Amino acid sequence: MTRKITLLLATIALAVSAQASTFNSKTQPTPEATLLPEADASFEAAEEEGLFWWEAGAKLTSNYLWRGYDQSYYGNVFDPAIQPSVTLGLGAFYIDLWYNFSTISTYQELDLTFGFDYKGLSVTVYDVWCDYGKAFWQNDFLDDQNHSLTATIEYTFFDRLRLHWGTTFLHAADWLTEGKRAGKRAFSSYFEISYRQPIKELFDINITAGASPWTAPFWCAGPRIMVDGAYELDFDNIPKGFNVTNLSVVLSREFEVGAATIPVEVGYTYNPTSRRHYAIINTGFAF
Do 240 and 188 meet the contact criterion of CB atoms below 8 Å apart? Predict the structure, then answer.
């Protein structure tokens, strides 16, 4: 009798266990089933990365600063510039066309950039054409005196800390004139460290320090000198070796208006090498 009761209890226990397993398999997905939505999402993300995209906009700045230098090269603290741009992309790759027209100095620049941007890593190769007074369609666009070819690489950590390096490979003025390497290419370079800190939901504060790691005749100039009754940056006496050129603090915020984004920036820049101070105000739109 005892043996029969034991068998009966064992049978009931097995039945309950089987029912519970069936119930759990329907209400709690197996590990394989749990991974399926994530796999589908990753495939969708991969497809999204391969899609064509574009951006366009324009920027208005109180002075076009690049690596701590105003691009009028006359030490102007105020030289408003208009900077339209358009970008065409395919996944992480893109082509960007950017133009600058400075209203007082009449400095004009056209940049054609080929870039790769993915998960904090950005790599670019860009050609810069620049001149004064005449736009590129009114000038000899193919004149190598007005072109430079530069490559950059940068990485952003935690969406806050950005490290940037740029080296110029081709430019008519990028040659050393003194020392053991006189007559050789300088490969003028620039590196920059930037940190972005959000202040609640009000604005971001961006702190930047940039420098020339070695003699850079292409872009790094000394303090202003008097030339024909006007002040110009001294490109005849290039600062040697390591030079800090860009110390800046910028407050920024973006506003969404319909499909457009309107960035606003207010900042201060000091260039220890040229000994110039700049207050900068930028705005514009992008969509």
Answer: no
